[in-house]
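User: For a benchmark we're assembling, each entry needs the component sequences followed by a predicted structure for the full assembly. Here are entry 17's components. Please fill in the structure.
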Amino acid sequence: MSQRVRLNPIACEAHGMCAELLPERITLDEWGYPLIDDEPLPHALVGHAKRAAAACPTFALLIEREREGK
Amino acid sequence: MSGLPRLLAGIPASGALDLDGHVRTHGELPHERRHRRRESPLIELVEHAGLRGRGGAGFPAARKLRAVGASRRRPIVVVNAAEGEPASLKDKTLCQLAPHLVLDGAQLVAEALGADEVLFCVCETSPDSAESVAPAIEERGSSQGEVPVRLSVVPSGYVSGQESALVNHLGGGAALPKSTPPMPFEQGVKRRPTLINNAETLAHVALIARHGSAWFRELGTPSQPGSALVTLSGPVAHAGVYEIEPGSSLSSLLEAAGGADGQPRAALLGGYAGAWIDGSLLRGVALADEHLAVHGASLGAGVVALLSEDACAVAETARIARWLSDQGAGQCGPCVNGLDALASTIEQIAAGEAHGDTGARIERLATLTRQRGACGHPDGAVRFILSSLQTFADEFADHGRHGRCDACGRAAELPLPLPLDARIDASRRRVVPA
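Assistant: Structure for entry 17:
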């Protein structure tokens, strides 16, 4: 089952920890908010993504399993 | 025979259609029975009618009903007449002139879904709507065993009528959007599955239940069947709310409104999340999404706002862009920063004080702002801004070089909310023949 990075944009306060810990998928815009590549995470990145989510001070970063439909 | 009016039929010159008049005009409400373990026939009827939501997004009404009905939990029905779009008055008009049609629709969907509660949301800036809906609820009573309806007044704001914002508000919080999923149909008010329908959508349901899906489709286009309410504003003899047939020409709407005052510079379709059509193209415009798509526009919530030739399109764009930036919920960083930066850039161009490649700057800001909010506000505001820059490219270039023009100081044309809702008098309700 594939997993993706998802952001709760309301919770995000631009601390920028995620871009430090998951630069493969997350860069910061000119205001410090994350720009996220939400392609499915390859196995090798899942651990890093989980660490990035855990490091977010506002719990704005979520690792989501593929949802069926919408 | 044109088949119009439908929603606005039988409305007396004095104002609202009361319950007696409503029943005389439309007939008794054919109550819906909840079918155990079986889908209510109403949903299939709405599906065959091809009814789409009239709040702006145009989502198929039957699919939304099914999504809510799929849950085992008892759902809640919300009537959305918050109508935060300043250029739209159609839901307020409906609440004030034909509240029973909306209440009928709410009853029907509540019965079809087995809901035990209907919450009717009107905006605080429209006390007339509350003053009309409250006695209408009272008048119906609970004598017919109707699902109880409670009126809720929503704080004003462009985004407060957004679905998740209503869920937040009805749960006792601020009327601000929240991050989805979960979607309201999964987990909405009181964490129960919640059907949120625009007021006009429900009014159509009330008529579909009475007259059937084939009747409904006698008007409109294959993808936008039925009639539709539009709010016409700008330099016309009689601005106001009209019931039209989707697919009919913009010219026929303008004719019914007593004609445009000169050749308009452009028309804004769909509202402040919508797009402009240049004045030179207006003659051939048909008011249906399949025709408007070539212009990058859609009917949205039914807004048609004309801008006169004498107005300064750049000053108008700058004013609306700033307002859209201010109207954000202030929750999502990219929307807060992006819309403010876009509005500032447009203000600088308008004043002739912009430096460097403003086109590239706007392009970059648009990319950084779009699709990065919890709700669709940044996307809609960016669409409006980019459409304005494209449609009024010559005026923007001129302001970029020479600064403010003679028309910049003219009185503003595009409607923004007044301190208190301008009362809708019955004479502003009109009907356009197909």
